[in-house]
Design brief:
Length: 299
């Protein structure tokens, strides 16, 4: 892997780690479900007109959009809105990798190697430690919602795998066409149209401008730029060489949350984080990757 590509991989990890800070800013202005709908709507509109529709079966496109898009971001945004620490969320979402392996074994009858099983057990041990600490702080519900977000991501991964797209980036962009309507419906039911309208009519305030800036970062840098560079790197290099760089995302997320949001992780959190990252690396990668390159596209 060329030095230039390594630097680009680190750059993408930084973009995706800071994505969680941007989401935090977005949720300061917009209700979580409505924020998720806006996030995908802003990508879906130009995609429909500018990006060729991938030649995949509709059910896999819908599965990818509902899993990776609607489910993941509905659970994640609500979890963050309920107080899930931003940096910790970037770590817990890494559970999508072992979830993908387990779902692949159950639903697609894929073989799970001893190395993968050891990695999954290691990641589960780290998550259990984090859950124990969060329950002590009465913050278990946001953690469980974040784990459901990771599980939804894994469901989307299986749909992506079965779709077998010729151009993964095109499928990733077209996936954004699916979530807006379901998330707008969820927003109307659980948040009410008044909350969404109020967030739009107060965009000129300081909080509103920060929220818009956060949303713009998520759409432009977190999705279009980050996913575009990542997909290019995956085409130029072996997946097993590029994929480990995605494990820098929670490192960046935890670090940025510490400096920008004042979230101070405990010693147990840092130890558990190292265990989880080690387990994800061990459980999701092998000589021939157990997951496809596109399944490692973070939020």
């Amino acid at each position: 892997m060329a030095i230039r590509d390594r630097l680009l991989a680190v750059f993408v990890a930084v973009l995706w780690g800071l994505n969680f800070i941007a989401i935090h800013a977005t949720l300061g202005q917009f209700p979580p479900m409505f924020a998720g709908a806006l996030r995908f709507l802003l990508i879906a509109i130009p995609t429909i007109f500018l990006v060729p529709r991938p030649r995949v079966k509709l059910r896999y496109l819908l599965g990818y959009g509902l899993g990776f898009g609607t489910g993941q971001f509905a659970f994640l945004f609500v979890a963050l809105d309920l107080g899930m620490p931003t940096g910790l969320a970037s770590l817990v979402l890494q559970a999508s990798a072992p979830f993908t392996v387990l779902l692949g074994a159950v639903l697609l009858r894929e073989r799970v190697s001893g190395r993968q099983l050891a990695g999954i057990l290691l990641a589960v041990a780290g998550m259990t430690a984090i859950a124990w600490q969060q329950s002590a702080n009465a913050a278990l519900v946001p953690l469980l919602l974040t784990l459901l977000a990771a599980l939804s991501w894994a469901v989307g991964n299986l749909s992506m795998r079965r779709a077998e797209p010729d151009n993964p980036l095109h499928l990733t962009l077209w996936m954004s066409v699916v979530p807006p309507l379901p998330m707008l419906a969820l927003s109307g039911i659980f948040e009410g149209p008044g909350a969404a309208w109020h967030s739009l009519t107060t965009l000129g305030t300081k909080t509103g401008l920060i929220g818009v800036a956060g949303l713009a970062y998520v759409v432009i840098f977190g999705t279009v730029v980050g996913s575009g560079i990542w997909t290019t790197l995956m085409r130029r290099n072996p997946a097993g060489v590029v994929a480990p760089f995605s494990l820098l995302v929670p490192v960046v997320g935890l670090t940025a949350s510490f400096f920008l949001l004042g979230e101070v992780p405990t010693a147990l959190t840092l130890i558990a984080a190292a265990v989880v990252i080690g387990g994800v690396l061990l459980g999701s990668l092998r000589r021939k990757p157990a997951v496809t390159p596109e399944e490692l596209l973070p939020v």
